[in-house]
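Changelog note: in this version the structure field was regenerated for every chain. One regenerated record is shown below for reference.
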Amino acid sequence: MASLSERLAGRRVVVLGDVILDRYLHGSVDRISPEAPVPVVRLRQQEIRAGGAANVALNIAALGAEPHLVTLVGDDEAGRALSALLAAKRVDTSTMVVDPDRPTTVKTRVLARHQQVVRIDDEDDSPIEDRFAEQVCANAVRALEGAEALVISDYAKGLLDDRVLIPVLRAAQRAGVPSVVDPKRANFSVYQPATVITPNQGEIARATAHEIHGESDVTAAARLLLSRLALDAVLVTRGEAGMLLVQRVGEPVSIQAEAREVFDVTGAGDTVAATLAAMLAARIPLADAARWANAAAAISVGRLGTAAVSVLELERFVAAQAGS
């Protein structure tokens, strides 16, 4: 039987969504400012990482699949830095659209002794212009030719709305390409038709106006979504409670969280969506794909900031958990 790495190798996955340049400023705090009661951070190190849909694409590449990123960036230093980061990891960025009048989204985090002191967001989250929406949509539909999965990464930065989502998801459905949606907005109706949507517990509570206290409430909320929307399944991420997969047919599948110290949850949702999409591209059944995604998330939260999980790490982690 083929190994996981062999099954994932070369699988073409289209990633559509908002990209973010994550900038980390590392330092130490030795005193409080005399100007205001705030810590003074002495800068020691700077680094940049790919966030949002760019992090999804990097995770897919790390698994050995072939990501094609469709997004929009600004004609600025951040956009060029993001493109360089992606190109270095063999992410196809030929379908990225450049808007010279719109800044690339940048999140700057100041950290002292691995603890976040403050975050600064530089962004324009207004809807993109019609001409750019048309271009993004056309690029995504074209990229779906020969694709084996689609993942939508919505960070509510103005890229994804009805002008883009509806035609792209419909094109994927017509082509028989499974689609994974990592949602951000409260109205999930824009994310259809889709194969699986991956809200966290808070997001599904808001989307259904349901109070959620336990697994039965999550199941009820997921079934409500399935009754209302053109979705095949809902995978709810529940933090320490693991995940719950609810499909149209069959009983819910409860996936327990892997025993792991949580260091930073930044980007964990990206890892889940990326892993799920890559597994579906490899024709791995949804329940098994969700279990792999759960394991990948456990690895991700053990690190600082956004980080891609390689297929080798994933295989070793699952093997170790099975043997413990």
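Spot check on this record: The chain is about 35% helix and 25% strand. The mean pLDDT is 91.
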